[in-house]
Amino acid sequence: MSTILFSLLAFIIMVGVLVTFHEFGHFWVARKLGTRVERFSVGFGKPLYRWYGKDDTEYVIAAIPLGGYVKMLDSREQDLTDDLKSHAFDQKNVWARIAIVLAGPLFNFILAAFFYWLVFIIGLKAAIPVIGEVAPNSLAAKAGVKSGMEIVQVNDTPTPSWQAVVVSFIDQVGEDETLALQLKDPNSKKIYQTSIDVEQWPDNLHADNLFETLGIDIARPTVPAKIGSVIAAGPGDRAGLMDGDLITHLNGQTVHWNELVNFVTAHPNEELELTVVRNSKPILLSVIPEDRDNKGTERGWLGVGLDESVISNDWVRRIHYDPITAAGKAIDRTVYFSALTLEMIGKLVTGEVALDNLSGPVAMAQGAGQTAQSGIITYLSFLAIVSISLGIMNLLPIPLLDGGHLVFYLVEAIRGRALSDKSQELGLKLGAMALLALFSVALYNDISRLLL
What does pTM read for this prediction? Predict the structure, then answer.
């Protein structure tokens, strides 16, 4: 029960923050453009609390925390004096109305960038780029790269993490003829300089084949398979795995985390027997990893994460950025996940991704609870992704959403006159039906996952 309440609280905080900021975007731009706002509501339904500001705007916190709205003065809804008409939304020129409608989603992207900025300021834990095995006669071996060395710098770019190494390597494809590396010896701690001939790299080099092409492997510490997180309704959750469980045996054989990951990945849809230590007592559990397609390759997925506390600080570091650098990285990450979200929506439309991937409020609440339990960094990152999704969803050209209104106003700007009331009313009805269908599918998926 405590987990459910915690997830509910994390969900309410998330919706409250994201919806309030979205509606504040509409509110702020409307006020700046001289439009009178009659009501600012966070949530739908019966008001739980309300007050009036000095601007005569009614501020409301309502019972159903699944959205919100800003109600502006509209001459179509009531008779207005000439003075008040100038402050009515429908009397503003079409570009002012477009700005007001666009402001809500735009503020969601700004909020996402702010969350990512906080993440980069606080600092991210990242794996130190220590090299594992080096293949004989490979590009790396010929350059004198040895197992155990840390990649400190690529050309003029410091590489505090493996992610930084990957980005730096790929950025150099097709550029310089040689790739300058600074490597730290694990024993003497001395810095060595070497270079790799990148002319020999294939044109289709990418993150998936990068290390194989170079002939190096990532050094991975041998750590116990202690569970730090369990994805709700995933295979591990359905099998009964819990946070804090220590998996000691797999099919009767002792196992550490890397062995567990490799075996699960290679055996999708196969029943596995796990010996789990929970509260100092061994428990036997059976689990069937799900088949997750990865670019045409079947890979097993358990839906659990490692408890990072078992990893020695010799293998990870916390990376901080100054405010200016963090701002640039936050914008980059917001743009990246916005593009990724649009790509996923496109695949849903074309059928490349099944509709059962849609998630509704139940899954959102579970995700909010799980990420909040994992720590402030994980929770802020989750809020950022949801804020991006909210911004993009509201820009979809579906009447009732901001994107639908934008379509109406853009048509008006092109035609020089608004669509007829009848056409707009028909669009709103169709939009309501579309949203109801999407919400029903998402809610059905949520319930189905809970029942599995």
Answer: 0.74
